[in-house]
Amino acid sequence: MTEHRCAWVTQGDQLYAHYHDTEWGVPEYDARALWEKLMLDGFQAGLAWITILRKRDTLRDAFDGFEPELIAGYGEAKKAELLQNPGIIRSRTKIDAAIGNARAYLEMRDQGLDFSDYLWDFVDGQPIQNSFRTLEDVPTDTALSAAISKDLKKRGFKFVGPVIVYAFMQAVGCVPFFPNRPHTFATQIPLPCRVSEDGIGRLLHERRNQLRLTKVEAAEQIGVTAAILREWEEAHHVPSMEHMPAIIAFLGTDDWLPGDALSDRLKRLRARMGWSRLRAAQWLDCSESSLAEWEGGKEPSRSRRAKLDALLARNEQRFTLQTSPTLH
Fold first, then answer.
1. Which of 95, 158, 183, 247 has the fewest CB atoms within 10 Å distance of its CB?
2. Residue ranges covered by each domain of the chain
3. Spatial distance between the Cα atoms of 159 and 290, rounded to a whole number of angstroms
C-alpha cells in the first residue's frame, strides 16, 4: 500500500502509515469524535501532526477522553496539573482554548444544534470530491474553511483558523484528497445497496472485484489475513466490531445496514437493551424529544441519519455476535 500513501507520511513510520491508511479522510459523523479531532488540530498549531499523533493517547488520558462535559468544568487546579504533564502539549493558551471550546460545544448542543449536523451541513451532508492530483495542488485553506472558521469563532471557539479548519475537514472526510489511492473514498463508487449483516460478505466480494484486488491485497487494506477475509466472504463468520471501521472504509459506504424503517430500529434498540428513551438518547447523542419524533416516523437530517445508521449498525452487529450460537 506504500505506493498509495501521500508524501507527508514518513517512510517507515508505522504509526503515521496506519493513521493515513485507516483514519485520515474517512468520513466521521460522531459529534464528540469530530470535536476531539478539531481540538487535536488546535493543539497541533505550530507543530507537526506526527507530534500530536504520538501524544494522542496521553492527551486523551489527560483530558478525560475528550469528553466536553468534563473538560468544560476544568478549573485552575486541573489546568496546573495539565501544565505539569510532559506527555501533552503544555501550552496554557491551547489548554484554555480547549476548555472554552468544550463550553462552546455544549452551548451549541443545549441550543439543539448537533455538532456533527452543524459541520456536515456545510458540505450538504456528504464529502466534496475534489480533482486535485498532487499535494502541490491542494490549498492550505479555502473560502469554505474560512466561512466555517468565522462561524466557529462567533460561537466562542479558538484555535480554529481557516488553515486549521481545512486540515480538519480533510482529516474527517468532508473534503477528502487521495492522490493515486484507489481504495479510498475519493475514487470509490458508492454501493447503492441496503443489506443486513449477512450481506457484508457479498459486498466485500463485489468491492474486491470492482477494485480488481486479490484476497491478499484486499485483506491487507482491511488489516486482516486473507483467510479471515475468505471466511467473511463465504459467510462462515460475521466480522467483529473492531473490524467495522476498516470494512466501511474499504466498501466506501456504510449503507450496508438493515433496510427496515429507522423508527422500528430505534424502538428495537431500546427494547433489546432495556433502555429508557432518555438513556437511548444519551447513547445516540441526541435529545429525548428528537428520539421520540424519529421513533414516530419523522425523518432526521441527512447527516444525522448517517450518524444514526452507523451507531445502530454497531449495536445490531454486536447483538448478532452476542446471540449467535457457538459452533463446534
1. 158
2. 8-171, 197-251, 262-320
3. 31
